[in-house]
Specification:
By secondary structure, the chain is α/β, with parallel strands linked by helices. It has two domains: 268 residues, Spore Coat Polysaccharide Biosynthesis Protein SpsA, Chain A; 83 residues, no CATH class. The chain is 30% helix and 24% strand.
Amino acid sequence: MITPVILCGGSGNRLWPVSRASFPKQFAPLVGCETLFQKSALRSLGAEFTNPLVVTNSNFRFIVKEQLQAISITPDAILLEPAQRNTAPAILAAAIYLAQQDPETAMLVLPSDQMLHEVEDLKVSLKLGLAEVARGQIVTFGITPTYPETAYGYLEIPKPVKHGPLQPIGFIEKPDAARAQEMVKSGSFLWNAGIFLFKAKDILTAFETHAPDLVKQVTKAIKTSKDDRGFYRLEAEEWASVENISIDYAIMEKAQNLSVVHLACGWADLGSWDAIWRESPKDNEGLTMSGATTSIGCNNTLLRSDSEGLEVVGIELNNIIAVAMTDAVLVADISRAQDVQKAVDALKAKNATQASAFLKDHRPWG
């Protein structure tokens, strides 16, 4: 059996104004009816999976519970982080929690902001990964790149490329455009999916070897955690001292027992509006529309209204993102989608409420 570990504590500023610190992208229905978080939970259903373990920020605890209830999924547990500390502490906390029950538990770590297609093909990759896990390997999944994306991390793999598990040569973090083009052309690089598979005991051994101070910090936070109406709240004072570091930097770039398995299914990291445009249904002119929107002669454009009664009208737009909410509107060239973070920073600098909060808060009572 595999225990899915769903990470959903991030903020996702590049999908502003729909995604904000108070209600980030993973909880919004950006593509289709379900939210990205719900899609992550639904794809981990099946006889080979246990109920998921969710790691999230304490501010999102009721959102997580409500969205799981809406799709009839009961979590194994919901671990609450008092503050964001990146993926390494979150994964370590989940591993310590699960190892207390069974150190042989196979953990499938899933980010909550991705799209996976052909989920049956995912199970083929998981089968290959489980064979590696059985011999003590830490498995990371890679995707054959289809274009030179600069917002993703890459895995360098040996040539000739084979279908089975590979020993990675190195990690490359978010290359510039020229470097990304070279890597895609070479055929010896994969996108780093940020999806991992390992036994709880093996990832704990890796942390003890490569990040022993982090183990001490997170262990204290786990030992002093409190059961809060079905949530497991990590102790805030101990968690405040935990290092903010990604799993790639803490473990994956250092571990010797690392295997790369090719992810057979379709994959997309929905971290920006151009990614949302690519993954959304489009007409023959490359136009995707959501909510109250009207297009006149638009091409390769995303029009979206998330405000009832607010109509977004585009006339002869090309390669444009136009997203409207009650209190904020974003209009940008698709090629500048990664710069939305700069807009959020500019709003924060002028103390604009819209930078991080909505007009209405999400609370358990509404």
